[in-house]
Design a protein that fits this description.
Arc Repressor Mutant, subunit A, 2 domains, Sig_transdc_resp-reg_C-effctor, HTH luxR-type domain-containing protein, DNA binding, WH-like_DNA-bd_sf, DNA-binding
């Protein structure tokens, strides 16, 4: 697999050098879209297809204005470049999220590709200049010869009213074909504009200091006159906010920033 430092570098390379088979058949996806149109209309869902080589939308749903806040013509004429310009968190997508996704794709077998979905919550500027919170989920339509996405089929929802949290996230999940349940392979949170040193609250840092001294939740609760449930909740929140897999990683994160 070739190494690219960013999503924009990959798109530029794909546009110049191609990707093996330069034609894509979106017929299957267009048939699926025609079946799902009524569902999309009733649930304010935006459906779309993106071709990374041509930086275009082979399909863009009529629901685009109510979800993303721009007319359909803007995407037909401006393509992917127009859309990326409205993404308020493109710097995260361009580097960290791109790296995470392609690391996973380099390790997964191609037969699992139809059962993998990528999700991202991000800020998006509408035509009035307001920022909307968008949830996007997509699958890969096809891979290039060196195992990079050639295009995606996806869905978007405007979740501004349901989620005003500044948190940005991305995740990778795989579907169990027997149970029809999704298993999370990776989930990361980002808090753009928030100083990492201010990410944890005063009480959380206080609890974390005791954890670093080896105290368990029950002992910390007794020292701070809290319930064990409250201590456990703070612990879970700290792990979630810092993308730490366990307490050891969380303590390392806090030590690195000089918080404890």
């Amino acid at each position: 697999m070739s190494n690219f430092f960013s999503f924009s570098e990959y798109l530029s390379n794909l546009s110049i050098h191609g990707c093996g088979n330069n034609t894509s058949d979106y017929g299957m996806y267009l048939r699926d879209i025609s079946v799902m149109r009524k569902f999309a209309d009733h649930t304010s869902t935006l459906m779309f297809l993106i071709d990374y080589k041509t930086m275009s939308y082979p399909f863009m749903d009529d629901n685009v204005r109510q979800v993303l806040g721009h007319p359909k013509e803007a995407y037909v004429e401006g393509g992917l470049e127009f859309s990326l310009h409205q993404n308020q968190n493109f710097s995260l997508l361009n580097k960290e999220i791109f790296a995470d996704r392609n690391k996973y794709l380099s390790e997964v077998s191609n037969d699992k590709l139809p059962y993998i979905r990528f999700s991202m919550g991000f800020g998006y500027r509408d035509e009035r200049g307001s920022i909307r919170k968008i949830l996007q989920r997509n699958t890969i339509t096809e891979l290039t010869t060196d195992n990079f996405p050639k295009g995606i089929f996806g869905f978007c929802w405007n979740i501004t009213d349901e989620d005003s949290n500044p948190k940005i996230f991305h995740s990778i999940e795989i579907l169990d074909r027997d149970t029809r349940e999704w298993t999370t392979i990776l989930h990361k949170n980002f808090f753009p504009g928030i100083d990492p040193e201010e990410l944890l609250g005063k009480r959380e840092i206080e609890i974390l200091k005791w954890m670093s001294d080896g105290l368990i939740a029950k002992e910390i609760a007794e020292k701070l006159y809290l319930s064990k449930y409250t201590v456990d909740t703070h612990r879970k929140n700290m792990l979630h906010k810092t993308n730490s897999k366990n307490i050891a990683e969380l303590i390392l994160y806090a030590n690195r920033l000089g918080l404890i």
